[in-house]
Amino acid sequence: SSEGKTKAGQRENADVTQDKQAVGAMAEMALGSPDAPLTVIEYASVTCPHCAAFHENIFPGVKEKYIDTGKVRFIFREFPTPPQGLSYVGSVLARCAADKGGADAYFLVLNTLFKTQQTWIYGGDPKLELVKIASQAGMDEAAFDVCMKRQDIIDLINENVKTANQKYAVDSTPSFVFGDKLKPVRSAEDFDKYIEEAGAKAK
């Protein structure tokens, strides 16, 4: 239908490297209406302290003001940073949670990973701590072990990194793409400013 074409056309500015039909662990991890006029992509790492600070201090306001009101579709893409191994492990775990509970479960695990960074990254037993986080998403240790062998998820994360590097020249985390422009966000005010700029251009 022509309506379908228009809607698809409106979202051309949103870069979609992942299969639109993919579900569960392989889906694009997004919050907000798919018909929102503006798409914002965050590239971040579950082991990055600045990313944790953004999600704790700035993101709740962004969600309330822009995502919950239908103005912004927010996509989170993994961009692992040191300690790299643990960053992949945390990201894979969050995606496995999405197999059962969709994006809501993904963001629940993601937020827990951010909030408890000190414990699971620098504690004596990362696996023990991560299994505890997995249990919140309804996964036992056996399911956690199976999850850690998901090469398809690792390949998807690597694809996200490749797109970030090649298309947007992302070289640090967190990095934000408003529409199709990479912008530095240091505060809630920055977010407001870039959304206003991108929104004005979209009209």
Quick recap:
Helices cover 58% and strands 12% of the residues. With 203 residues, it is of the alpha+beta class.
Report what the structure shows.
This protein has 203 residues and is α+β, with helices and mostly antiparallel strands. It contains eight helices and five strands; from the N terminus they run αββαβαααααββα. It has a five-stranded mixed beta sheet with strand order 1-3-2-4-5, with helices on both faces. The longest helix is centred in the middle third of the chain and has 32 residues, at 84-115. The chain starts with a helix and ends with a helix.
Encode the helix/strand succession as letters: HEEHEHHHHHEEH
Shape: globular
Number of helices: 8
Rg calc:
17 Å
Ranges where pLDDT stays below 50 over 5 or more residues in a row are: 1-17
Describe the protein's topology.
Elements: H1 2-10, E1 29-31, E2 38-44, H2 49-67, E3 72-78, H3 84-115, H4 117-122, H5 126-136, H6 141-147, H7 151-168, E4 175-178, E5 181-183, H8 188-202
Key terms:
single chain, 203 residues, alpha+beta, 5 strands, 58% helix, 12% strand, disordered N terminus
